[in-house]
Amino acid sequence: MKERMTLTELQLLIRDSLFMAFPDWYWVVAEISELKENNAGHCYLELIEKHPEDKNVRARIKAVIWGKRYRFLKPLFKDVTGDHLSEGMKVLVKVRVEYHEVYGLSLVITDIDPAYTIGEMALKRQMIIRKLEEEGVFTMNRELTLPAVPQRIAVISSGNAAGYTDFINHLLKNSYGYIFYTALFDTVMQGAETEESVIGSLDRIADRQDLFDVVVIIRGGGSVSDLSWFDNYRIAYHITQFPLPVITGIGHEKDLSVTDMVACLPLKTPTAVADHLIESVAEAESHLEELSNEITESSMAILNETRDALSASILRLVNSGKEYIVKAGLMPATQKTRLVSITGYFKTGRNTLIENYRTGLINKTINCIGILRKCTETLESKLKILDPVNVLGRGFTITSINGRIIKSVDTIDNDAVITTTFKDGNINSKVINKRKKN
User: Fold this and answer.
1) Can you tell me the distance from the alpha carbon of 187 to that of 219, in angstroms, rounded to the nearest whole number?
2) Looking at the DSSP assignment, which residues form a beta bridge with residue 108?
3) Which of 48, 250, 274, 333 could make an S-S bridge to 170, C-beta 3.0–4.6 Å?
C-alpha cells in the first residue's frame, strides 16, 4: 500500500470498495424528508428512518431519481396511490449504492413499490384507531348532542383557503336569512405544522368554550397525502376530549380520516358543513311552528268545549250584579248619617291630640335649648383658658425657629438663631450650647 495518496485517490478507493461490497440492487424502506425536482427533470430526495418510539432520526441519506426514469415512475405512482410522491411519505424503493468523489454517498432509485405506501398509510390509520379504542375515548365526542340551533361557530381553517371562503359565503347567503356568528382560528391545514397548529386552535377555543355552540374543522379538497395529516393520533385525541361537538368537512371524497371518525359529525366538504348548519336552524324553526300550531288548536278545542259553561257563568254573574245594585240603592242614606257622626267624633279627638303634641313639643324645645346654651358657655370658658394670648399673659413664652415651634432641643443646632415670643413682643437669640435632660 502506498505511503501517501491524494484525496482523489482515496475517494476512488472508497467508490470502488463500496461498489465491490454492494454490487446489487436493494429494496429499502424509508421516509421522504425532502423532495425537489430540477429543471432537467431529475428528482433529488433525502431519505430518513425514524426511531419507532419517537421522532428522532436515526438514519439519513441523499437519493436521486434520474429524469428519464422519474418521468416513468412519477405518473405510475400517482395512478396507483392517487397521490404524488411527497415529503412525509413512507416508501419502498429499489436502490443502488453509489459514491462520487465530489458529491459523496447517495442512492440511485430505479423503482418504487406504490402498494407498500398504500399499505403503510392504512396500517398507520388502523394503529391510531386501535389505540384510541383501547383508551376508551374513540366515541367520546360523537356522544355529545349537537345543539338544535347552532349559530355561534368556531372555525378551524386557513383564512386563505378557498374552502373557508365557500363556507362563509354559503352561511351568509342562506335563503332563509338566518344570522350566524363565526370566529376564525387561523390554522395550518397541510404539512408538518398541521398537528401543532390544529391542537393550538382547539386549545384556544376550549379557553372560550362558553362563546360557541359547535366547532367546525374545514379545508378544501386535496390529495391523499395532503389530507393524511389528519390521520394523526394527537389531533384525534384532542377532539375526543373536546367539550363542544366537532363537525368536520376536510374534503375527503372516498375515505374518512381518523379526525373524521372521532368527530361528532363528519361531512364531506366545507359547503356540506354550512348546509347542515343552515338546515339545523330551519328544522328547529319548523318544529317551533308545529308546536305553536298544536298549542293554538288545543286552545281552540278547550274553548269550544267550555263555551256553554262559560256562557252560563256570565249570566249568573250579570244577575248577581243586578241584585246587588238594587240592594245598594237602599243603603246610601243610612250610611251617610253614620259617616257624618263618625267624622265629627274623629275630628274633635284629632284636634285635642294635635294641641297636646304642640304644647309638648314647645316645652321640650325650650329645655333642649337651655342645655345646649350651658354646654356652649362651658366650652367657651375652656377655649379662653387655652387661648395662646392668655397663656403668654401668665408668663409662658413660645420658642420657634423660622416660624416653626421648637418642641425638642434635638431640633436645634448650635449657633442657630431662635425667636422667643412674649405677651408684648419677640426677641431673637443665638444658641451658644444646648443641654438635654437625662
Assistant:
1) 10
2) 64, 96
3) 274
**What is the rounded distance in angstroms from the CA atom of residue 33 to the CA atom of residue 35?**
7
Give pLDDT tens digits for 153-186: 999 999 888 889 999 999 999 999 999 999 999 9
Domain ranges for the chain: 7-112, 126-282, 390-430
Q: In the chain, what is the straight-line distance between the N-terminal and C-terminal CA atoms, in Å? A: 107
Domain 126-282, CATH number (from 3.40.50.10550, 3.40.50.720, 3.40.1180.10, 3.40.50.1380):
3.40.50.10550
d(CA 11, CA 6): 9
List, edge to edge, every strand of the sheet that includes 425-430: 404-405, 398-401, 417-422, 425-430
CATH number for the segment(s) 7-112? 2.40.50.140
Phi and psi for 171 in degrees, rounded to 5? -70, -45
Q: Which of 401, 437, 395 is nearest to 418 (CA)?
A: 401
pTM, two decimals, is: 0.53
